[in-house]
Write a structure and sequence with these properties.
- This protein is of the alpha+beta class.
- Helix content is about 35%, strand content about 15%.
- It has nine helices and seven strands; from the N terminus they run αββαββααααααβββα.
- A five-stranded antiparallel sheet has the order 4-3-7-6-5.
- α1 packs across α9 and α3 packs antiparallel against α4.
- The radius of gyration is 18 Å and the shape is globular.
């Protein structure tokens, strides 16, 4: 597992007693300012017999300790193929999606133009290096803004996110409308857990596993993981986000979404590394799921 030193340090800080499973209710190289400025299925059941997602006590305590130390962090977990309420730790604010929205946008573009080589190249660029011009082309290729919004929302709904409304009008000068979509981490985890089971999931999960250079922080630094991040300034502070698929317990997979407010990009990615280290240390306590055969 990469980041072994960070894992070891974090584990020492968060090691807590506890056992059993408990229910919890609950881009181009990075810019120091933003990665998002745009120039002018049917799934298998949750592993919980009650239909609620469960997580081991030690993992829960470790994640809660991270949030206690850093209340600006929110983390949501959902097993792939699951239909239970995700485990969410921290305040799940509806913050801007930034470039994480490029994942459902890419799926929508692929479904609209499945044989278009140019669209496929833009999908690769929009995810692996978070190319904003490529993402803008994918968006305009879906039609007028309202049409594009509906196409991306259809992808979200089919994967399990029933509430997120995609922004189709520019609300912040210099930034794309879709990047300003307000996306809760719980809805994001639900989306990714469902999207991973779509027949065309590899269109986005393959490039999520080939992130380039400065995009490989947090979840993307863990063996066997695929991820997509996003970041940028808001009126309430700098927001950093990431979502990814990780190996879970007993060979399953886990969808994870993390968001945080931070002072700057470097501080935020270091904190994302800390969250990833805790997840890696407690993988045996995390709910893993599988897509139907």
């Amino acid at each position: 597992m990469r980041r072994r030193l960070l894992v070891a340090v974090t584990a020492a800080c968060v090691a807590l007693s506890g056992c059993g499973a408990v229910r919890v209710s609950v881009e181009r190289a990075p810019s120091p300012t933003t990665d998002e400025g745009v120039p002018a299925p049917s799934c298998s059941p949750s592993p919980s017999s009650s239909g609620r997602v469960v997580v081991g006590a030690e993992a829960r305590r470790a994640l809660e300790r991270v949030v206690e130390d850093h209340p600006e962090v929110a983390i949501s977990l959902a097993p792939v193929g699951g239909d239970g309420t995700p485990v969410t730790v921290g305040a799940d604010e509806t913050l801007p999606a930034w470039s994480t929205i490029k994942v459902p946008l890419a799926l929508a573009a692929h479904r609209a133009h499945p044989k278009d080589a140019a669209a496929r190249a833009d999908i690769e660029a929009a995810i692996t290096v978070s190319d904003n011009e490529a993402a803008a082309r994918l968006w305009t290729g879906l039609g007028e803004p309202a049409q594009a919004r509906r196409a991306v929302e259809r992808v979200l709904r089919e994967a399990g996110d029933r509430t997120t409304r995609v922004q189709d009008r520019q609300v912040v000068a210099g930034y794309s409308p879709f990047g300003q979509t307000r996306w809760r981490v719980e809805d994001q985890a639900l989306f990714l857990a469902g999207a991973a089971c779509a027949p065309d999931a590899a269109v986005v999960t393959d490039p999520m596993g080939r992130l380039v250079g400065g995009h490989t922080w947090g979840l993307a630094g863990l063996d066997g993981a695929v991820a997509k991040g996003g970041w940028g300034p808001t009126a309430d502070g700098y927001v950093l986000r990431q979502m990814g698929l990780l190996p879970g317990a007993k060979g399953g997979r886990l969808a994870v979404a993390v968001q945080l407010r931070t002072s700057d990009h470097a501080t935020g990615t270091a904190l994302m590394d800390e969250v990833a280290a805790v997840l890696a240390e407690h993988v045996a306590d995390l709910p893993g799921g599988r897509c139907p055969p």
